[in-house]
Every structure is written in C-alpha cells, then in structure tokens.
Write a structure and sequence with these properties.
Number of domains: 2
Strand content: 5-15%
Number of strands: 3
Distance between the termini: 24 Å
CATH class of the largest domain: Mainly Alpha
Shape: elongated
Length: 157
C-alpha cells in the first residue's frame, strides 16, 4: 500500500488502492482480478491497514470519500520505499567483472599479455570480485541500519 502511494504520489480511492495491491499479491493484471481477490484486499485495507496508517499519521484517509494519500510525515519512510531505478544493479557489476576478468585471464593464458603471470591475473580478478562484494555488503548494511526506531513496533508480542 505504502509503496504504491509513494510511486503514484497522488491521492487514490481505497478501491483503486485495493485493486493495485490485490494485483501485486496475486501476480496478475488489475483487469484479471477476481471479485474475491479484490474483496479480500479491500476489506483488509478498509478495516485494518488504512485506519492504522491514518492513526499513525503516515497516510491521510477521508472515510467519507474513501480517498487515501501519503501524509507529509510519510517523508520519513520514503527512503524505505525507494523506486527500483534508485537501486544499484549489483548483478550487472558482478557480470561485468566476470566477463572482463575472463577475457583478461584468457589473454594472459594465451600469452597476449606477457607482462602478467596467470597467478597475478587470477589474483587481480579475485580482488575485483572482493572489492565489489565488500561495496555491496556495506551498501546493504547501511540500508538495513537506516531504519528509524520510530518505525519499529516496540510492543510486546
């Protein structure tokens, strides 16, 4: 729900919101949803999720019109609802290292690059993977450490 509201950055009816969430949950297009799939999500949003988010000040909900939008306070959580284009394509970095490293190692093995031994070439490739993996780890760790204590449910189970 929050991810969708963050993506569209405008108000929607609770019915439109339920359609989008149901489509994501069921991995189908909105047009292919059954009435049962729509109803299940709508009831959940209407009775539980939207009112709780409204009470918490994360969304603004007008129960008379059924309109839902992100509140101004939702800026605090927008970092956790990042758009896909903001994420680093780590798999592409690893693939690039594998391709370039393979070509480099092949050139060394064939004697096309005589100044570098196969051992050194292998070591260079391993270091490139290690540096990339460390960068990936640090980035992932920073993202998980960024969660605000206000967003963590402190109630006892």
């Amino acid at each position: 729900m929050l991810y969708y509201l963050n993506q569209i950055d405008e108000e929607v009816t609770i019915g439109e919101l339920a359609d989008e969430v149901a489509a994501w949950e069921n991995e189908v297009d909105v047009e292919d949803l059954s009435s049962q799939q729509r109803k299940r999500v709508y009831v959940s949003l209407y009775q539980t999720h939207v009112p709780k988010m409204d009470d918490a000040g994360i969304v603004e909900y007008d129960s008379d019109s059924g309109v839902v939008s992100l509140s101004d306070q939702a800026v605090d959580i927008s970092a956790y609802l990042s758009r896909e284009e903001e994420r680093r394509p780590w798999q592409q970095y690893y693939l690039a290292i594998a391709i370039v490293g393979g070509l480099f190692y092949g050139a060394v093995a064939l004697g096309l690059i005589g100044a570098v031994s196969q051992f050194i070439a292998g070591l260079i490739i391993i270091v490139a993977f290690a540096v990339t993996a460390i960068g990936h780890l640090i980035t992932t760790q920073r993202r998980s450490d960024e969660f605000s204590s206000e967003l963590i449910d402190k109630r006892e189970p």
